[in-house]
Amino acid sequence: MALPLTGDPDADLLLEHDALALLIGMLLDQQVPMERAFRSPHDLKQRLGGRLDAAEIAAFDPEELAGLFSRTPALHRFPKAMAARTQALARVIGDRFGGRAEAVWETAADGDALLANLKALPGFGEQKARIFVALLAKRLGVGPPGWRVAAGPYGGEGFRSVADIDGPEALVKVRETKKAAKDAARAAASAGS
Question: What domains sit in the chain, N to C, each tagged with a CATH number?
């Protein structure tokens, strides 16, 4: 399995085979455990009647969508805000990419274009976009020319992000790397004050 991110084989398969699910999972991957963020597209699909469709999500009543995100178990720590962000993502996919989430990378001639496409998505800042470039290349084999440069530090070897997770051991190593980076940042901040 290329994306063992959730602990649930069905949710992981959805991420591998549904580009919109993968983008939503990455969008939600903040301030919640990674496994929950990437499982949420599977749960959202069930709550939407068994399908994820960018046009349908874009046209959904915002309050009803927020209700789906809020239903127990909530799809995110901030369900209303993330429902709105998911709907904005769906709108951009519809308006800019013809409703096809995979067009975000299929239309990119090189790594810089892919990075630009990702940064144009709501909720995808510089770091998240670079991580997603690396995720596409390392886990799904979608690596246009120049992807490593576009991915920045996430394009290299090591255990820096979700792009480097190929199983439970890698997940532990990524978490250790992130914790060490946070600890170093705290120490540097303390030394500077």
Answer: 9-192 (1.10.340.30)
